[in-house]
Amino acid sequence: MRLFSLFWLSAITLATQGQSQVNKTFTNPVLPGWNSDPSCTFVKEWDNTFFCTVSSFLAFPGIPVYASKDLVNWKLASNALTRPEQVPELYRNSGQNEGIWASTIRFRDGTFYLITSYVSWYDGWGPKILLFTTTDPYNDASWTGPLHVENPANDIDPDIFWDDGKVFMSVAAGIYISEIDLKTGAATEPIRVWNGTGDRNPEGPHLYRKDDYYYLLIGEGGTETNHSVTIARSREIAGPYEGAPHNPILTAKDTDLYFQTVGHADLFQDASGNWWGIALATRSGPAWEIYPMGRETVLFAVDWKDGEWPFLDVVRGTMTGPLPPVNKDIPGDGHWIDEPDVVDFTPGSGFPRHFFFWRPPKTSLFAISPHGHPNTLEISPSPVNLSATPAFEPKEDGLGFIARKQSATLFNYTVDVSFNPEVEEEEAGISVFLTQAQHIDLGIVNLQACSGTTFIPRFRFRVEASGKPNITVPETVVVPVPKEVR
Questions:
Q1: pTM of the full predicted structure?
Q2: Range of the domain at 207
Q3: Collapsed DSSP state (helix, strand, coil) of residue 373
Q4: Higher pLDDT, residue 474 or 388
Q5: CB count, 10 Å around CB of 432?
Q6: Which of 35, 237, 304, 456 stands the most exposed, by the fewest C-beta atoms within 10 Å?
Q7: How much is the pLDDT for 123?
Q8: CA-CA distance, 349 to 121, in Å (whole number)?
Q9: Residue 1 included in any domain
Q10: Strands 156-163 and 147-149
Q11: What is the pLDDT of residue 2?
Q12: Structural domain ending residue among the three candidates 321, 346, 381
C-alpha cells in the first residue's frame, strides 16, 4: 500500500448583555495551521456562537466551518463541501492552487449563507461563484448543493450583503458590486466602486452598514509581506467611497513583527456590542522565509465608535481584549482545532471529520478495518506517487493519501505501518505536505537489492520542491530497513 499522512504547512464565546467587559489576554493564532482567508459571523440565535470559515483549495471534505463561544476555543462544526457532486469539477483539477478560494459566511433569517469562488485553469480563467446554505451548521449533510451565481465581473472573493430588501455581492480584484437573486443566481451588471488606496490586488471585500454609512473593508498588496487591510465608506452602496485617512488600518509591512502578511480581514460584533476582527497572517518575521504553519487565522480587538472609523489592534502573539467567559459548550462531534489525535480506525467507524484528502478520493483505494485487519486503515497503491506526473488524472487514478492539518509547531507523531510491497518503487510513508509540488517524505520503499535479483524494503527520505525551484534541496537519503522490523 501507499500511505501518506499529511501535516499541513501552509473567536468565540460571547458575553451576554451586561456582563463585565474586563480585558483578558489571548494568544494568536486562534486558528493555528493552514486556515487562510477567514470570514466570521456572530449568531445570537445559535446560543451566542461565532462561526468562521476558511479557504480549502483542493482539500476534501472542504470549506470547514468552525464554532466557538469564547473566541479562543474553536471546534470543527461542519464541512460545507462533503459530497463530490456538490463541486464535481474538483476531480479534474491538476493545478495545486486551484479549487475553493476565499469565502464569506453570514446568517440571515434562520439560514447560514456561505458564498465562495471555485477557481480552475482547466478551461482558462473563469472563477465560478457558489452559494451554499444550511439551517444546521453542525450537520455536514445539511449543507445544500451550491447555487451557481452569475459572475459578470469574472472575479473572486465574493461577499454577500443584505440591504433594504435587496441582496448584493461584492467581488475582487478591483471591487465590484452586483445585486443578486438568491433563487436564480442572476446578477446585475457590476458597478466598480473602489480601487483601494493604490496598492496592488485590492481583494477580499466585505460590506457593513453602520451609523448611516456603508463601510467597505478590503485587503491590498497581495498575500505576501506587503499585505494590508484598508477601508472606505459611502452614504450610498454604489458609492462614491472615501478611504479612511489612516489607511491601511492594519498591516505588518515594513515592520519587524513576528506576524507578517496580515490581511484579508473580516469584522464582527459580540453579544455585548464589542467589535472584533480576524485576518490571515504568517509566523515568519519580516524575512518571510520559514513559516511551516502556513497562513493562519489571527484575532484582534477593534475600537469602532459611533460615526468614526474603526481602529484595529496590531496583530501580535499575545493580545488583550474584552473576551467573553471561557465556554467549550459546543455541540457536535467535531474536533477541537488544537486537540491531539489518537486514531485507531475501529470497525464501523468513519474517517475523522478533520481528516481530508487531496481532491475527492477514489473510494476503492481506502478501507477501514478490512476483513482480518481490525483497527487499521488499508490504503491501496495509487498509480502515481505523491508528486504525480503530467499525465495524472485525479478522478481515474486517485491518490493514496489522507491528511490532517498541522496545528502545532512542536509535537510527537507516530504511525504503525504494515507494508507488503509487490513491485519495485511501491512505497508507504508519511509526508509534511504543502502541495504535490512541495512536500517532505519519509517512506518505506521497495527497491532492488545489490544483487539485482531481489527487492528489499528501504527507508527513503526525500524532498519534492519543484513548486519552489530556487531553494537548495537536501539530498535524498536511502538506508536499509533493519531486518528485525521487516
A1: 0.93
A2: 9-321
A3: coil
A4: 474
A5: 17
A6: 456
A7: 67
A8: 37
A9: no
A10: unpaired
A11: 35
A12: 321
Q: SS3 of 387, please? A: coil
Check whether residue 30 and residue 133 sit in a common domain.
yes
In a domain, 367, yes or no: yes
What's the confidence (pLDDT) of residue 387?
85
Q: Does some domain include residue 341?
A: no
CA dihedral 286, 289, 292, 293 (to 10 degrees): 30
Residues 42 and 139 in one domain: yes
**pLDDT attached to residue 305:** 98
Domain co-membership, 247 together with 118: yes
Residue-wise pLDDT tens digits, 272-305 = 999 999 999 999 999 998 898 999 999 999 999 9
Cα distance between residue 268 and residue 105, in whole Å: 11
Q: How far apart are CA 234 and CA 94, in angstroms?
A: 42
Model confidence over 389-418: pLDDT tens digits? 767 888 889 999 999 999 999 999 999 999
Task: Say how far apart CA 365 and CA 380 lie, in whole Å.
Answer: 5
Mind telling me the catalytic residues?
A: 37, 203
Of 358, 441, 343, 354, whose CA–CA distance to 406 is shortest? 354
Say how far apart CA 126 and CA 433 lie, in whole Å: 27
Asked if 13 and 123 sit in the same domain, the reply is yes
Grid cell locating 449:
537489492
- Closest by CA position to 462, among listed 442, 447, 434, 438: 442
Does 332 fall in a domain? no
Instruction: State the chain's mean pLDDT as an integer.
Output: 93
Task: Confirm if 298 and 29 have CB atoms less than 8 A apart.
Answer: yes
Indicate the number of domains in the chain: 2
